[in-house]
Amino acid sequence: MDKQVLLTIKGLQIEGRSGDAWHKIVKGVDLTLHKGEVLGLIGESGAGKSTLGLAAMGFARDGCRISGGTIDFDGINLRTAPEADRRALRGKRIAYVAQSAAASFNPAHKLIDQYCEGPVIHGVMSREKAEADAVELYRRMRLPNPEEIGFRYPHQVSGGQLQRAMTAMAMACRPDLIIFDEPTTALDVTTQIEVLAAIRDIVRQFGTAAIYITHDLAVVAQMADRIKVLLRGDEVEEADTRTMLAAPREDYTRSLWAVRSFARAEQAPASGTPVVSVRNVTAGYGAVDILKDISFDIHARRTVAVVGESGSGKSTAARVITGLLPPRRGEILMGGKPLPASFKARSRDELRQCQMIYQMADTALNPKLRLRELIGRPAEMYLGLKGRALEDRIRELLALIELEPDKYIDRLPSELSGGQKQRIGIARALAAEPALIICDEVTSALDQIVQEGILKLLDRLQSELNLAYMFITHDLATVKSIADEVVVMQQGVVVERGPKSDLFANPREDYTNLLLSSVPEMDPDWLTRLLAARGGNA
Amino acid sequence: MTDIWRMIARRLLLGLLTLFVISLVIFGATELLPGDLARELLGQSATEETLAALREQLGLNDPAPVRYWNWLTGVLQGDFGVSMATQKPISELVGARLGNTLFLALYAAALSVPLSLLLGVLAALWRNSIFDRASNAMALTSISFPEFFVAYILVLFLAQTGIFPSMVRITAATTFGDRIYMAFLPALTLTLVVTAHMMRMTRAAIINLLASPYIEMARLKGMSPLRVVLRHAVPNALAPIINVVALNLAYLITGVVVVEVVFVYPGLGQLMVDAVTNRDIAVVQAIALIFAAAYVLLNLIADVLSTITNPRLMHRR
User: In this structure, what is the dihedral angle of CA atoms A52, A54, A57, A61, given to the nearest 10 degrees?
Assistant: First the structure.
């Protein structure tokens, strides 16, 4: 490449403090970025992607320090430059787009005020000019009502729109470099496409260089010219996107590529009495109906995946089944018998039959309880186990989720990894010996390799214990690997349901088709082709 | 905007209900006090006939609910009854004292609120610095000593040397400038007592927010540390700060008994102490009710301000 070099990082080392000791987060990484080039940084969590991205702005989070190497941005040494000089670069020549726009916009100020802050304080343009410019960028980011949307507060704007508004804000001073830190990870697949397309267009229009951080290979394939793979603070390999996708050199890269190979054989449609039947349920909060006349069945040894965008009513359906939200109309049958609408009216045995596993294992486990108590409580409460029998059962459950009982039984949740915590969530559900387990986005907070382990475990437990699963997810790759039946929801209505193979092969409804076609593929031309096929605003 | 008016109306009604309950408690508590008021007034040597006549005159023979009703209807018309000890109408007695108490409270608030907000913001900005530690240590020291001790220390250093008076003689004729001068020591004592609480809360509320993603975003936009704190953290920390300020203002009105006694300041606290000593029950009841009203009103104001400063409550989706 004969383009001018914009950013050079050499031998960069970053340390983080845990207690009194410093440990290395980034261990001597080199990076070169040319003007107008997009570099993809990928790796699992803990790989040091975000830390490296922030270091490109000469910034280290509290509790972290840059301990070695050089960072040269357009002739300025960001390690030795005074803080005031670095501050003058940030927002003006190097901008940042964060993962969660909802959390990264200040809730106390209107979008336009936050947009104008950068250009005005950095002396790039006047407030009037900046406001006019904001409208123009909002329009280019394809935000609805570009003249008006800036005068709203962040909580009045949807997540996908906020992410685009944040990209517009990053563009405000027309920077030379933007760091995108997982900008679409928190979005639905259908929204993700719009944001990806808008980001890609605006970066190309202004010739801005970018570092695009993500753990999603298919996404990085659409966005980046070159890809660098990181593992625990070390570079694994780097190549241009097409070469990397076609012929990864390292084993680790290949393992990332191959992750989604797990797919279990689809079970034949079941007959007989379903474990749980949702019958014509209408439910909601206040005056609003979130669910409108939905029905579906879940049979023993079958997994029903409930898919849809956020706000489509997936989790509300789970709340109705568990009795947390009594429906306005309709009923829930368990083993053919109607269940009381509210959990308060259900017997202990009826409660035992239906257990939940949550998305955030971190917040779903009491941090003050040891695993012995976390798993033991439901066994004690529902099944009356005590003493020796209880101890044996806890050990049996730990073995079942593939954690060594002697080593783990007295640990606290904080002494476990993310994947292990989710396994404890599973063991806690199993302790009640339920017929149905509702899994609410249980893998979406985990790395792909860890996800795979959890899915395999759930699959094994299902065939050993005759469980029925209701699998709530927005991740269609997970659906492909584990579901028998799929229920597609949109705005509180079941749009389509049927066996997985049918649904994926010939979706009948437009919405199902939209959802399926929005899942990014590893082909770098996928986004371009898709946008062209959808009416070409690429 | 109609939402906020509706909320204020609802909270006012709730406040009145709270006051009603408090009036029951106050009346009930004074009922439980031992002793016979008539005998207290006439002394041990009084005859049974004169005692009976006085009881009749004071309405002490009526059943408690009737006496409560008479008291409450009087209060609602601004008539708190007559002081037993001085035979003056209580509203007259309390009126002037309430003015003095409010003056001292506002004086102390005018010193302490800006001071503690400034110290809190600076301590958050320079957290873990020498300044942070020193201001924290000083604030904690001043809050750790009993009020009367702080007051006597100030008297020792500032009154014994003749700079400020140690006794506050305020009458209706005293000019504003003289009041400010004479009430300086009590106001300073109160400032030292309440500043620590407000300052530490301001500091904690701001520091609590500094780990938020939007604060990191502001720093990554190249904003200066001062601007990050003032523009991005403080607006989101207002609700807890407003509440702790309101709580301390209420304390300045109701909790100044000791300080008023030390400086012989003619406020409500002094009056209450005197009334308790004299078994002047009607005066005690009136002052207790005024103190309760101050708490309810200040908390109402704090709630309304917290709501107004929160865009999520002011601008619905």
Answer: -120
Angle at B72 between CA B71 and CA B73, to 5 degrees: 95
Task: Please state the pTM of the whole predicted model.
Answer: 0.80
User: Is A117:A124 a contact under the CB 8 Å cutoff?
Assistant: no
Q: At a CB cut-off of 8 Å and minimum separation 6, what does A303 contact? A: A462, A468, A469, A470, A471, A482, A483, A484, A485
Q: Which residue among B214, B221, B315 places its CB closest to the CB of A153? A: B315
Q: Reduced to 3 states, what is the DSSP secondary structure of residue A491? A: coil
Q: What's the count of helices (H) and strands (E) in chain A, helices before strands? A: 23, 20
Nearest to A91 among B221, B232, B317 (CB): B221
CB A314 within 8 A of CB A294: no
Task: Tell me how far apart the alpha carbons of residues B267 and A534 are, in angstroms, rounded to a whole number.
Answer: 78
Q: Please, which pLDDT band fits residue B283 given cuts at 50, 70 and 90?
A: confident
DSSP A25: E
Residues of chain A under the 70 pLDDT cut: 1-2, 258-262, 536-538
Tokens read off for B7: 């909320």
The confidence score (pLDDT) of residue A261 equals 62
What percent of chain A shows pLDDT beyond 90? 38
- What's the mean pLDDT in B114-119? 93
Report chain A residues whose CB lies below 8 A from the CB of B232.
106, 108
A87 touches chain B (CB under 8 A): yes
- Count Cβ–Cβ pairs < 8 Å, chain A vs chain B: 76
Cα–Cα distance measured from residue B220 to residue A382, given in angstroms and rounded to the nearest whole number: 51
Do the strands A94-97 and A177-181 form a parallel or antiparallel pair, or are they unpaired?
A: parallel
Q: Residue A436 carries which side chain, given as an amino acid letter? A: L
| Whole-number Å distance between alpha carbons of A203 and A313 | 35
| Nearest chain A alpha carbon to B239 | A108
- Contact criterion met (CB below 8 Å) for A172 and A96: no
Residue the block writes with tokens 């012995």: A372
- The single-letter DSSP state of residue A394 is H
Q: How far, in Å, CA of A340 to CA of B22, rounded?
A: 43
Q: What's the N-to-C CA distance of chain A in angstroms? A: 26
Spatial separation of the C-alpha atoms in residues A335 and A338, rounded to whole Å: 8
Question: Structure tokens of A310?
Answer: 């956020």
Assigned token pair, A38: 């997009």
Amino acid A259: pLDDT: 57
Interface mutation target, options A62, A104, A213, chain B, most CBs of B under 10 Å? A104
Q: How confident is the model at residue B11 (pLDDT cuts 50, 70, 90)?
A: confident
Query: In what side-by-side order are the strands of the sheet with A5-18?
Result: A21-34, A5-18, A64-73, A76-77
- Please tell me the distance from the alpha carbon of residue A148 to that of residue A114, in angstroms, as a whole number: 15
**Per-residue model confidence (pLDDT) at position A538:** 39
Q: What SS3 state is found at A210?
A: strand
Residues A214 and A179 sit within 8 Å (Cβ to Cβ): no
Query: What pLDDT, in 10s, does the model give residues A250-294?
Result: 888 887 776 566 677 777 777 788 999 999 999 988 778 889 999
The pLDDT of residue B8:
86
In angstroms, what is the C-alpha Rg of chain B? 24
**DSSP for A413-437?**
GGGS-HHHHHHHHHHHHHHT--SEE
* Helix or strand holding residue B174 (H, E): none
Q: What is the DSSP string of A262-307?
A: --PPPPPPP-S--SEEEEEEEEEETTEEEEEEEEEEE-TT-EEEEE
Angle of helix B90-125 versus helix B184-209 axis, rounded to 10: 40
Interface predicted TM-score (ipTM): 0.79
Say if the Cβ atoms of B213 and A108 lie within 8 Å: no
Q: B221: nearest CA in chain A?
A: A91
